[in-house]
Amino acid sequence: MRLLFTWLINAVALFALPYLMKTVYVQDFAVALIAALVLSLVNTLIRPILVLLTLPNTIITVGLFIFVINGFMFWLVANFIGGFYVASFGSAFIAAILYSLISWALSSLLLKK
Question: Which of 16, 45, 52, 92 would be 75's cystine partner, CB 3.0–4.6 Å?
């Protein structure tokens, strides 16, 4: 049940992004649910491989390259999901940071251990 609630929180966070950034478009809440699910799967399956492959860059930048990887994952999902659009990689970079912050805030407010 907690997993479904977390998925719903992530979808709400994704659906809130177009209100904060004009360069992000989410057609409706159903698209936000699908995009949140795909984003979770991509972050679970592909992100660890990219982190491992880019480990030298991450070490040199003292971990800041992880933000680039997160932006890339966000941009990648936006390219595959119809009804979810991000204007550029720079927008995806900023949107991924905002998405993480909104999701974290909602999770900390709504999910209690």
Answer: 92
- Name the helix (H) or strand (E) containing 35: helix 29-45
What letter represents residue 50's amino acid?
A: L
Tell me the CB-side half-sphere exposure of residue 59, using CA atoms within 13 A. 5
Give CA–CA dist 98/87, Å, rounded.
15
Rounded Cα distance between 110 and 108, Å, is 6
Tokens for 10, please give them: 């992530």
Residues of the chain below pLDDT 70: 113
In 10 A of CB 94, how many CB atoms?
Answer: 20
Q: What angle do CA 96, 62, 52 make, to 5 degrees?
A: 70
Specify the long-range contacts of residues 65-70, CB closer than 8 Å, at least 24 apart: 67/93, 67/96, 67/97, 68/93, 70/96, 70/97, 70/100
Chain CA centroid to CA 2, Å: 19
pLDDT tens-digit map of 68-84: 999 999 999 999 999 99
